[in-house]
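Researcher: We're reviewing a set of sequences before deciding which ones to prioritize for further study. For each one, I'd like a predicted 3D structure that I can look through quickly. This is chitin synthase. If possible, include the structure in token form so it fits the rest of the review sheet.
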Amino acid sequence: MGTLEKTLLTICLFFTVFGLMTLQKISLVVCLRMVLHPTVLIEQGYAVLSVFLVSPYLFSVALVIWNTPFLRKAKKGALPPLRCVALGIFSAAVEGACIVAFTTRVMAVLPVFVSLPATQGVLGISSLMAALKESKKRPRDSSQPIDAAGQVPHIAPSVVGGAKIMASVLCVMIYPAVACFLYILDLADSSTSLCLAFVPTLLGLIWTKDLQSYILRPSEQVSLFHERFRLFYWIVKIGALIFFILVEMYTRSETSDSRGTLNVLLDGFSIFNDTYVMWPLVIHFLTSILVYGGVYTSLALREPLFGITLPSLLSMVLSIMICVIQAPGLFSLDETTHFGPFPLYLICASFLAWAWAWPYILNSSSLLTKPQHLLTPYKVLFTDYGWNPVFADQTLLIGFDCSKEPSDSNAGKRVKTRIYICTTMYREADYEMERLLLSLSQLSADPLLQDVYFESNVFMDNGCRGDTLTEFALQFVSLLDTKIGVSMDKCRCWSTPYGIQISCKMAGGLWLFLHLKDPQKVKAKKRWSQSMYINYVMKYRKTLWKGDSDNKTNSNVKVDSPPSATLKPASSTDGPQQFHLVTTAETGEIISNDLNYTLRRITNVGYPTYGAFSPSPTKSAEQTSSDDASSPNSESSSQSSCPDEDTKGHVNKGFHDDDLYLEQGDVTAVNLSVLTLNTALRTNCVPALPPGMESRFYQRLTPVTLPSQLYSNLGQVRHHVSHDVIKEAALEETVATSATEIDDRPEGADSDLVDDDHTFILATDADMAFHGEAVKELLELCGSDLRVGAACGRTHPVGKRSGPIVWHQVFEYAKDFWMIKNAQNIIGSVSCCPGCFSLYRASAIRDVMDKYSTPTRSPWTVYVKDTGEDRWMATLMMINGWRMRYSPFADNSTYCPDTFEEYYKQRRRWILSDMANAVLAVQNILRLIRNNECFSLIYVVYLVNMFLNTVITPGTAVVMITAGLELVFDIPYMYTTLPLASVVYLFAILCTCTKQSTQVRLINILTLFMGGLFSSVALYGCYKITSMMVEEAKAGDFHFQQHYMILLLALSLVYASLMHPKESYQIVYGFAYLFIFPAMHVLLPLYSIANIIDQSWGTRDGNKAKIPKLSCLPNLKRFVKLRKRTKMVVKNEDSEAELQSAVSARLTDMRDCGERAIQEHKFWADLAATLIGVGVNTGLEKAALAQGLRTLRNRTLATFLGLNALWLAMLSYFYLGADSPLARLNIYGVMSGALYGFTLAIQLVGLTAGRLEQVLGKVARRICRGGGDNHVPVWVSRRESREE
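Model: Here's the predicted structure for chitin synthase, in token form for your review sheet.
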């Protein structure tokens, strides 16, 4: 199927580019023939030529500005050599002169079947130079002798090489020959003949790859100065074109004053008032852009034959045929008779046809060479940007060169990709947690990502208090069993320096670690949870891989080993002798008081459990019964190894559950595997075990030797334990051991090749739903560009209940992702990767993790760091040179507020963090420009424009409402502006002195009022403007007016929806967005600033946890029942209490669980002591913070209101200055265009380019790599070293 799809794609590409090239050439001829029309004045003709020639060069300038960081600091002394600059200026001037001369002296005065093939002359010189270079590189024959001087004699080129050189020379010489032929027969004047003879050859010399590479890239390492000089050369070319157009016009006009020539040329632009002149120019320009994009698309998909070579070759023939046949209808002249005798021109055309076809054959080796990579960037495939309007496909053919495409130095290396899914959790509802767990479960078994290592870490704020789980932690634990099928008997529970850690392994092999934060031990809030998982992944979990750069296991790092244990006699001598169990560690910490205390687990992983006891091999044969020789796993052994009476006459009467004593007698050396007091020392007694448990009882692990001084004091060791207790203890110990001995070290950690560039943290919120395809999309996006520090996906909001506020958010999310994210993706960097679903590269996190975890030192930074943590992370990454990207194919969904009150509280936090981080970005704009190559001039202007729009949006929205009321409903402007502005200012004041519940009611009332006004103005205004346009069109007096900008704003959203076909239905939710627009842009900013003091999260504060009945948890219930029988758990009938008891029963100190657990405990203890602990790394005190926030609130609100008052007054001044309704309507349109026009234009261009790039990448990975090119790698953009 992949091969068929690729074949169809190739066919579509060929016919698309072929048709576009044909239309481009036809429109070229039409534009030039229009100049010859008798009704067109000479100055008008040159005005058309100037627009025709200059517009593609202006487009190229825009591309250079778009792709070059002009504001970034470059290395000192990296200027290109002076000779290169001089040569670049000279070649630019010569190019301008040649283009003007060839266009006016050849293309406009010779028939199409002569002029179009003549453009192919620029390829002849490149063919000749390629043939000469190939002959010089031909290898020497090994049989050829070497002279006495050690020199290789000159080698004559082979027959094939000589033929290529001769054919190339003939191609070059044909054009002078045809020029002489035309001049001799008086078919062309001397200037036309000279231009035809030498201009193509001269342009071919200027455009050769070697010369252009020498000018643009004089050294192998291209500096920023080299890229910036590219813009300088394009400006010189534009200046040369305009200059030589004026010179050409001056020589052909009767004006003797050169300064008057420019005025005459400007007067000629009046011709563009006629639409018949504009359409050919517009069609030619648009088809040229599409050809430009189509050729690159073909080369990016590695199809040079069908994407550029064959379309260029065949479009020339078809274009000539159409122009000759349809000339009378296209441009009112006959190509066969208008210019002179047709047979003579036909002879010239036949010679030019030979010269036109041969370069394709001679350059076939370069024209048919496929790039080594899919999706190779344009600047790697071509020497320069843009195209030439006359030599469009020829310049692309000459500029195409994949011979210098760098090879992938990492080819053949299979680096293991690691993704650590990290989730922050607070008070999510059960249905929200369920979405996350189901997503993790599906991801664990997704075949698309079977080669990727996954691990999930969930950090819950206020998850526990001491050893007690809070209600939401219990809710999550219960969902593990009811929804995922992971019961507590498959989990491991550890007490840690930050709280409690519960870990388990899902069915697909994904490890899930639930970290319950204790607010008495570590700091709360989302940013500190993120700091925890960043440090946990970067400094501990990641280092479990042997090949990780941070793994220090081979660096002689001392690791504290667990303490060994001994038995000491108790001080009491009454009754059977008892012993204390103590450690031999330097601390002398007592692990257990005495051996009488049974079934009390004090586990140290590495020491034995109860079932690991076995008789010592030193035991005498006399003391061993015949039954002892049977298999230890056999039933007979377990039943007969404990006789009713021993050799000393002691009767085994049985003991109570808690009874265990040691009698004096002969001692037997005992091997201990795990030191627990679920165990009993035994010599010749093996109790009956439950089926399947025998092997566990005889598993031998690390022995612990009793101290030698005890042997002389001990007699025979006997123990008596109830048979039922032993069976229950065995069941308990099996469950406990399986939980504590789980190895969570990743598979392949010792052998796989890993690095930080292929290690990621997938940050999610606790209510997210996503699939493996979304993760794969983000992974491919980051894998194809190592400059990307983070990538985000397309988030879809869903509500528990549907309604206007949910519809509003659906459209708002769609609009922002469609236009803002796509535009930022292309022109620079996405300004924020939302923390709800974003993939962060470990090497990028390493650069910012320390700065990210700094405390808040001022009131303003509270909203930079604590409430806008994802924006803060993105800003830090961009300052360090990383770029953020967005993938619209990485779909995910999250719950959004479904009530107005919750929505206002959420947006209060978002608006303040957006404002604070926008101010931070503006403050650090110079650092961002200096350090980050994606901060181009256009992107910087775009960011500043967006920031200013955010500040003055309230005043703008008020003017849009009140001016619209006057223009649509004839309500005087002053009658509505002052009252509405007063209401807004009164609302801002009330927000500073009333309760939030009162403020929310005021917002609801004002939203209904202002939303109704704005919706009426917008809808009826669009209808009225459309009616005016239709009337003008019917009257034949249609021309563009400024107020049409209002319709363009609406149509841009429709266009954005059409560019996303699967989501285009969401445009209907725009009506809800329209209604809530005033609340979003006028009321909520004021409400947010007035409530700066409020530090609450705002959402989910009223949620209640839901814990299912314990009947749904049979394993837990059985486990709790077991604990009750051993009198270790107090009886509870409540499900929450039973679940809490089950978790507490399994809770073990992390330090008692092995060497690696001790390492992890040390990591968390150090992190708590230095970063996340309650009393460390603190910022402002609460009192100082509250006072500072109050001062910040007053200053910010006063400044915000003052700026918007000034802006409102200025807009009113300009609006009221107009004396007619139409003039005011135009001013209204100009205001809208000035505020949003530039941003809108950038967003539309970025949207279009972004969607094309995304679809191209999708096609390349899904079709081309699936159609037999699986071995072809995708281009990977490398991160360049930062220039200082």
